[in-house]
Amino acid sequence: MSFHNNPHTFHIPVMGLGYSIDSPIKVAHYGISSVISLVDDISMEKMREFYCKKFNLPFQPIPPKTEDHRAKRITAYLNTVQEIVIKKFENVKNSLSHTEEELDKYIKMLPDVSELKLKFNQMINTGQMKQKLSDWLHENLVAGDIDVNIMSKLDRDGYKDGEKLPSIYSDAQSSLRGFALSDLSSSLVLSAGMNPRLYSYLEEFEDFYPNASMELKKKVILKVSDYRSAIIQGRFLAKKGIWVSEYRVESGLNCGGHAFATDGFLLGPVLEEFRNSKDQLIEAVHDIYVKALAEKGKPVPEKPLLVKITAQGGVGSNAEHQFLLEYYNLDSIGWGTPFLLVPEATTVDEQTLEVLCKAKEEDLYMSEVSPLGVIFNNVRGTGMDLKKEAQNKLGKYGFPCTKKYLALLPVEDNESICTASFEYQRNKIQELKEQNLNQMEYERQLGKITDKACLCNGLTASTLMANELDTKMEGTAVSICPGPNLAYFSSIYSLKKMVDHIYGRTNVMERTDRPNLFVKELNMYIEYLGTKLEETVKPFTDKQKKYFDTFQDNLFKGVEYYKELFQKYKTQMEDSTSKNNMMQDLENLKLELMNLKAKMV
Question: What's the DSSP call for residue 118?
């Protein structure tokens, strides 16, 4: 399976713990790349059994008592996914001799400018012999990548019989080992910041080093929110002899899932820096990389290996997609949230799909439900939120902690606890009662404690339910984390329809009031800053004042940057999905920002 010749200009990023867990099985044979989360080995084991039955593959369970069971389950699941993808992809390539439906779908979904599509149509139109066409298909069709994601923060230490295990048995390192020992030739997406012990562990696996032909069997993709972070992490890994094949720039607040807000660094200016400094980044990292490989006695490349720059977060129209690709010289654009409404690409239960289809702007909000203490994109009306509200009304707080992936808060006996658990919330509420606070303050503090929800179960229940699998452990309360873009997509779509929308061959949005993705992100940052200012007790400390000043400066710089960009490229950036005046929106947001500045004085 090829990495360099990806036939599409979009990819499907990781979504939740379960929503894209089987996306490669659904879309890779059409040349579409997607990303599997490696957090939940329990769900992976259930899905492996499900797919082995479906495709008549042998299934040998890996019980929790098996030594290194987490890594072994992940390896087994990824190998099963690959086996199925290869089988489905072979069927597409051979469909000339069976049914041409799948091949037709593969070709029709490609971008209209795709060389693959143009060449295929030319061969068909000139009446090429079937055998010649069949040979050409086998040589030229490309499957999508089966990429995987490790969220660096989720690195709970392993324990056995109360004894702490060596660090290689931590959650993140076990996930890495599971991927590294699999048959896949694809990429590991590292997200949520730097984890030195995880990054250092990459050195242990041969697949991350170049072979004699300068090919990497397994690649590293870094998810970053700014250029500085890319260069720091890129250098750190290069010193270990690990090359970063892609820097995936993600909008801080305009994506789904956990929102890692920056200090006001906006997507446009960040991408501009990558556009202007990509060569310096590659050179700086290459020199360190070459030295490290030589010291390890590994094959050394004469020139830098390929580096891709991609982006994701809030993209919703063909005009935006094309503009990002062309102006910022990007290799691919991540489309996440809209694919939650495409059952051919992701797996969401029917009830939750209905909630997603009906969701408007006011239903999509930044919540505090995540036990990680990071803001989390949410939608009103999910099963998990309804369950939590009902429980809280009855004075029953917290959730049973069955999977413990987010149990990261250290406690006295060295093990850790989850802030959404019964145990944690019961103890915290007891402490709160002892403080003798007034009723209003007590309610406020109680709300903060009891807002947390069980994401380990909530983010996998939907996928298991959709496949009619056992959810005794998970329950049926669903959490889902769409980005704000969902408000403008309000139906269930076929895969082809969504791909046609991305490439501008159709428009699936009925509404015409969708703001430009850059404007939307800026608006969210201004709201975020306003909330932060409200929450902070006056007078500000010097440190707080400095933080707010820097934040505002970055936003003001962003406004000026966008003003110039919009004036220059107005026609390329406007399309039928939005009748909003981008310049007017920008002026309004600048006024809001000035009002916030006035409040600080």
Answer: H
SS (H, E, C) 275-314: HHHHHHHHHHHHHHHHHHHHHHCCCCCCCCCCCEEEEECC
**How much is the CA Rg of the chain, to the nearest whole Å?**
24
pLDDT confidence bin for 1, thresholds 50/70/90: very low
Q: Can you tell me the distance from the alpha carbon of 212 to that of 254, in angstroms, rounded to the nearest whole number?
A: 41
In whole angstroms, how far apart are CA 205 and each of 149, 216, 217, 219, 533? Answer: 17, 12, 11, 11, 47
Supply 359's token pair. 């969701």
Q: Which structure tokens are listed for 318?
A: 């063909």
pTM of this prediction exceeds 0.85: yes
- Contact at 8 Å (CB) between 39 and 405? yes
Query: How many angstroms separate the CA atoms of 389 and 381, rounded?
Result: 11
Query: What are the sequence ranges of the domains in the chain?
Result: 10-340, 360-479, 512-601
Query: What's the average model confidence in pLDDT over 190-197?
Result: 95
Q: Are 421 and 441 in contact (CB under 8 A)?
A: no
Q: Assess contact for 230 and 238: CB atoms under 8 A.
A: no
**Whole-number Å distance between alpha carbons of 455 and 461:** 10
Contact 542, 453 (CB under 8 A): no
Q: What angle do CA 113, 115, 117 make, to 5 degrees?
A: 80
User: What letter does residue 135 receive in the DSSP assignment?
Assistant: H
CATH architecture of the domain with residue range 10-340: Alpha-Beta Barrel (3.20)
Cis before 7 (ω within 30): no
